[in-house]
Design brief:
The complex is a heterodimer of chains A (313) and B (341).
Chain A (H helix, E strand, L loop, with lengths): L1 H36 L7 H19 L2 H25 L4 H24 L13 E2 L9 H5 L1 E2 L1 H19 L1 H11 L1 H6 L4 H28 L10 H11 L4 H24 L6 H18 L19
Antiparallel strand pairs in A: 1-2
Chain B lengths: L7 H14 L1 H26 L7 H18 L7 H28 L3 H21 L33 H18 L1 H11 L1 H6 L4 H28 L10 H11 L7 H22 L4 H17 L1 H12 L4 H10 L9
Classes of the chains: A mainly alpha (313), B mainly alpha (341).
Chain lengths: 313, 341
């Protein structure tokens, strides 16, 4: 009886931890999905997460309210997305190079500004988002307390995933966006504004990733640290492939990442002999395996990575 | 600059003096230039064949791991022989790490950008596991390996500094790679593959083999960068020893994309920027992290101003149909060295 209870609490804690670590990656992966579906590799997601995290930390620090922080984080992400769209869509610079440049810029800028704002020692603990138990659902055994006692941003993720799926597959705009990613010229001839859609998709993508960064600060770590994005933006690019460029797939693949992360954390405590790095590698290895396995069967949007120029043939 | 309350001019001056006009500063510039130059070559060689190697960072780690394994396993050997063997091991490690995505790209059609990117993280974790587990030095306070024997270490080129012979090796290889790509039949074949896959295949080039070879060569160069860090600078393998040299290499490779001869110059600039970050902080109290932000801005400007020419190059190397036209454009394009810093 006692054992059962302990096992159950451990399981609840595990699922909750997995879900928590999946949230930022899932946000970024949804972002990557949106921009790639429109035909743009957003390699700058790593920077968007950092900017979101930094914006959230500063907003919360100055206002004392994590809700304000989430909004400032989002605003930082939107601004970075606009820059990214300017570079990739309007100036048609190379998407990989501009993405990497944006990442370098954000890493330096946030580290620099965080010393100006928080001083040399880095930020102090910030107030975070409080978990909100959802009525009724929270009473479901095991799943209730682990999945439905989360913060507002985690619920927002679920909502955003559903809306993304609906927008992408069930609306005219979604169809136009998918066409833009597959064959911009055909979409253009059909009267779709390729630049406008791609700009919107890139800005949305950066905004979503910045929400992931805000979640990192407001619901997990409660302070801003240099380079706290830790490769999640890059992982998101892989997760999109694992999830076959669909919103639902992206969320599921992110959940797999969350499970690996949680397993790694709990293993460090319970079984120090098992190398925890193995679990940190696992999502990356799984993504590569999926890429190899899916080669030829699942494919990226046809025009992804290619800047579109109306005037060229 | 203005934001942090220091006046910009002395700061820029300090940046330059520390990086290039000061003996110890210049030595530290050279130390940083060595891995950056090799990493840039590791990106530039596959790029010539139209492949994007975003995984130089991981290849650096894998090379360093192999170098450490070889260095710790080797018996006493005459001076020089041991170091060469360790360097070969490092190149093998890097080549292995790049060969996997190269093979997948050439024979299975898997996107090399994503695979090289992901393998970075796998390599970093692998090294982290190695130095905190099987390779960890006894009684080490944090994860690092045993020290390599003194006979294996590279000589110092500037007395009383850290500047090791690795920079000479890197420069030599840069020249060799440039000459190879420019003047040999094989270099020409690689270029052809990069310009137009179908045409290359039609001309009798074994395209798949060339793609794999380009990745192997690039990986070996990045692996050597990792090996030289161990042999010349640290003398042991550390957890997280590379501060993103692989990513700096990508930036440098693109700065000098139009003409390989500029590669060492661009690498030296980047190395100087990195080395000076600390100096600037001491001189005018501007945090070194600002240099990172500046560096990103420089690349953003280059990427933006070269939007058209980079696009031309991308098509050129990715084998787009209009190879002819963009090739002509390319010849008139010269990559400007950054003036913004």
């Amino acid at each position: 009886m006692m054992d059962d209870l302990i096992n159950q609490t451990a399981l609840v804690a595990f699922i909750a931890a997995a879900f928590r670590s999946a949230v930022p990656v899932a946000f970024a992966a949804l972002g990557a999905m949106w921009s790639e579906r429109a035909g743009v590799y957003n390699v700058g997601l790593e920077g968007s997460i950092l900017m979101g995290a930094f914006g959230a930390a500063v907003g919360t620090y100055w206002s004392g309210s994590p809700a304000v922080g989430a909004v400032t984080g989002l605003a930082a992400g939107v601004m970075l997305g606009a820059l990214q769209a300017l570079l990739t869509v309007w100036m048609r610079s190379d998407q990989l190079v501009s993405g990497i440049a944006v990442n370098l810029f954000c890493a330096g800028l946030t580290a620099f500004l965080s010393r100006l704002v928080f001083g040399e020692k880095g930020s102090t603990t910030l107030p975070g988002l409080v978990p909100i138990p959802l009525p009724v659902l929270v009473d479901v055994p095991v799943l209730g307390p682990s999945l439905f006692r989360q913060d507002a941003l985690a619920y927002l993720l679920m909502v955003v995933a559903c809306i993304s799926s609906w927008l992408l597959y069930r609306t005219h705009a979604g169809l136009a966006l998918r066409a833009t990613g597959e064959s911009p010229r055909a979409a253009d001839s059909a009267g779709v504004s390729v630049r406008k859609l791609r700009t919107l998709a890139v800005v949305a993508s950066s905004a979503l990733a910045s929400l992931g960064g805000a979640h990192l600060v407001l619901a997990q770590i409660h302070l801003f640290a240099e380079n706290m994005s830790g490769g999640r933006g890059f992982l998101a690019l892989a997760i999109v492939i694992l999830g076959r460029w669909s919103p639902g797939g992206a969320v599921l693949a992110a959940a797999f990442f969350g499970v690996c992360e949680a397993a790694q954390l709990s293993l460090q405590f319970t079984h120090p002999a098992v190398p925890y790095q193995l679990f940190l590698m696992l999502p990356y290895l799984a993504s590569i395996a999926a890429l190899v396995g899916l080669a030829g069967r699942s494919r990226a949007p046809e025009a992804v990575g290619k800047p579109y120029d109306r005037e060229s043939r | 600059m203005g934001l942090s309350g220091a006046s910009p001019w002395p700061a820029y001056q300090a940046l330059f003096t520390t990086a290039f006009a000061d003996y110890w500063g210049f030595a530290s510039t050279l130390v940083k230039t060595c891995p950056i130059l090799l990493a840039a070559l590791a990106v530039a060689v596959p790029l010539r064949a139209g492949l994007f190697n975003i995984g130089a960072e991981g290849q650096i780690y894998c090379g360093a791991l192999f170098a450490t394994l070889a260095g710790l396993a080797l018996p006493e050997l005459p001076a020089g022989v041991g170091s060469c063997l360790v360097m070969l091991a490092a190149m093998a490690g890097g080549a292995l790490w790049a060969g996997l995505p190269g093979y997948l790209k050439a024979y299975r059609g898997v996107n090399e950008v994503i695979v090289t990117l992901l393998l970075n993280f796998v390599a970093i974790q692998m090294v982290s596991w190695a130095v905190s587990g099987p390779l960890m030095a006894q009684g080490a306070p944090y994860p690092y390996s045993d020290e390599l024997a003194e006979s294996l270490r590279l000589p110092i080129v500037l007395p009383q500094t850290d500047a090791h012979a690795g920079i000479v090796i890197a420069l030599g290889l840069a020249v060799l790679v440039h000459l190879h790509l420019r003047y040999t039949a094989h270099g020409h074949a690689l270029d052809l593959v990069g310009r137009n896959l179908q045409a290359a295949a039609y001309a009798g080039v074994r395209v798949r083999r060339e793609l794999l070879l380009a990745m192997l060569g690039g990986g070996a160069l990045a692996g050597l960068a990792g090996g030289l860090e161990v042999l010349g600078l640290k003398y042991r393998l550390f957890h997280l020893f590379s501060p993103g040299y692989g990513f700096d290499g990508i930036v440098v490779a693109f700065m000098a994309a139009a003409n390989m001869a500029w590669l060492p110059v661009a690498a030296l600039l980047m190395g100087g920027l990195k080395a000076a970050a600390g100096g600037m902080q001491r001189a005018v109290g501007v945090p070194g992290t600002l240099v990172d932000a500046l560096q990103g801005l420089v690349v953003i400007f280059i990427a933006a101003s070269h939007g058209f020419s980079l696009r031309a190059m991308r098509e050129h190397w990715a084998g787009a149909r209009r190879a002819q036209g963009s090739a002509q454009k390319l010849q008139t394009t010269r990559t400007a060295t950054p003036k913004g810093t």
